[in-house]
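EI: anyone free to look at a 193-residue chain?
SC: sure, send it
EI:
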Amino acid sequence: KNTENLVISLDTHNYKITIFENSGTDFHKVNIEEYACESELIENQKLYDILDNVFSAYFDDKANSSPETYVVLPDYFVSVEHIKLPVLPATKMKEALRAELKKLYPNLKELEVNSQVLSKTKKNITYACTLIKKYLITDCVSVAKKYNLNLKNIIFHSNAVSNAYRALNSKNKHSSCVFADIAESQTHLIYTN
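SC: here you go
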């Protein structure tokens, strides 16, 4: 399939957005462009304005053909919690999980929550919960609509690296590893299990 793909990665540490563009699955022909971002917009998490400025420049001299688009956000835009609860009837589990999250996040109404069962025993169930501010998702969706982009996924950096590791070699699907992304002024450690 020769679908045009865009991956937009926000690097808040270096105040830039990197756009990776390719058609189909030929990853040897990836076009990479970097755009500077205003520090004030990044520090205030004005994601709509950041993406709008970059897309305005990016699509200025290109025909937009509704590419499949993936947005990679910095890890600190997302919170991940592991919550262990006693096993309850299904209707009560949702309420119990919500109550635990509300204790940790008084602003829970402002957050989008994605929860998955991590492990389950006869007595306990452990959830992995990913939380992100709702307006960040809304900003991504709104800018995608404005520029006629087919937004497929909004993901965070560590999760993108983990998914790529597994996709590159099927033997990696059930293995654990640690990635170290080392730069002059920062280091990202990513553990994938």
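EI: The mean pLDDT is 83.
SC: 👍
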